[in-house]
Predict the 3D structure of the following.
Amino acid sequence: MGTTRPVEWHQADAMRLPFEDEAFDAVVCQFGVMFFPDKAKAFAEARRVLRAGGLLLFSVWTGSKRTSSPTR
């Protein structure tokens, strides 16, 4: 994945992204997914702000059963 355009980084609440629909080519979340209180809502928000053919990239340390985060 490469681009000639500058990359812009934004920090936001994953459950309520303050961006327009189809605003981004990529959504990146590093080690946050395992702490989302509502993973389905967060992933739906990521999809909403992605352009068609956009990339969702995330990483986690381990499954939610092995973390101290609250689960549903």
